[in-house]
Amino acid sequence: MSIDRTTWEFVKAFRDDRLAKIESGEIPVSLAEGSSTVLHLMPASAFAPAAQVDLSAALNQRTLSGLTGESWGLSYDFEGLLVWESSASEETTSYAQLFRSGVVELVDTALLASGASGEKPDIADFEKTVYDSARNWISILRAVGAAGPLAAALTLTGVRGWSLSQDRSGGRLTPRPIDRDDLVISEAFLEDLGADPGPVMKALFDPIWNAGGHAGSPNFTAQGAFRH
């Protein structure tokens, strides 16, 4: 990690502030209730004095979307550029906020929604969705002028009791349901926005598997390459 201590403190403070605002509902949309997935992508350039990316360049990107959804609204807002799942008339289940500084915030309450029998989604599908979205937004950040290193942070809420579907541990490990409501996973760092984000995403997903009794995600190689 080459991020300096001052920037690191700004990253931590920003994330803590945003998580508090999300929890209290101080967000730009009316978000449907449910277990939530929150992904923050925080390039070091966003914490420089008067940092600002080219929002007009973002408008030229055809992949502006949140974590889940099919129909997307797009507008400027006070913070920068807002994208939200727009199929519902009142509440949305997913949004993406591109801050003027270059930070990206993705919040979603559909990805972890329980099925008819109360089961959570398959962890492999969850990982692919988050991985693909992170890779997409990191590419967008490059296009709008952000620069690394980048801190990626993943937070899950309402996941108590989630069993990670299959026993893939082997050996003596005994998988078990997640024993807490929220998982606030430590930040992982991508030195270059042009690099493969696989190792960073593996570092974010492994603690979820640990919380379910597993050694780590089987959906990545030991080097962090994603098994598509």
Strand percent estimate:
15-25%
Q: What portion of residues is helical?
A: 25-40%
Order of helices and strands: HEHEEEEHEEEH
Oligomer: single chain
Low-pLDDT runs of 5+ residues are none
Termini gap = 27 Å
The best one-word shape is: globular
Overall pLDDT, averaged? 93
Structural class: alpha+beta
- Number of H- or I-type helical stretches: 4
Largest sheet: 8 strands, antiparallel
Q: What Rg, in angstroms, do the CA atoms define?
A: 17 Å
What is the number of beta strands?
A: 8
| Number of domains as seen in the coordinates | 1
Description:
The chain is α+β, with helices and mostly antiparallel strands. The chain has helices at 5-24, 55-59, 123-143, 198-211; strands at residues 36-43, 72-77, 80-85, 94-99, 104-108, 150-157, 183-184, 188-190. Strands 1, 2, 3, 4, 5, 6, 7 and 8 form an 8-stranded antiparallel sheet that branches. Strand 3 and strand 4 (94-99) form a beta hairpin.
